[in-house]
Amino acid sequence: MLKHKNDIKRFAEEFESCRKILLALGDENRQHLILEMMQMDCCCGARVGAITEKTHLSRPAVSHHIQILKDAGILNMRREGTKNYYYFDEDMKAINKLIQMLEDAKTIMEDLSDWNRTE
Question: pTM higher than 0.90 for the full model?
Fold first, then answer.
């Protein structure tokens, strides 16, 4: 059981480090925005105006949601003069971190399930 306590403690730290990512992905508007950006197929990035045209959101709302996705590490921004272009993080650090956290959760839950069955 001590092994599980250490695993759970480590998982709690992972969970905390993924909080911004989970928050960012948990909102329906941001989910819609991500899907629209994927469908735009803009490898060089998209501007807020172009993203706004593809959503039912106002320009300030799109900017707000982009900032949250940026803070979570899902989107990056590059500037060309006065224009900002938003694109998905090519390293996928935030997504990979989330996947690792979910895999660890699954492993712990499976181990606990197996342990409970043998009791």
Answer: no
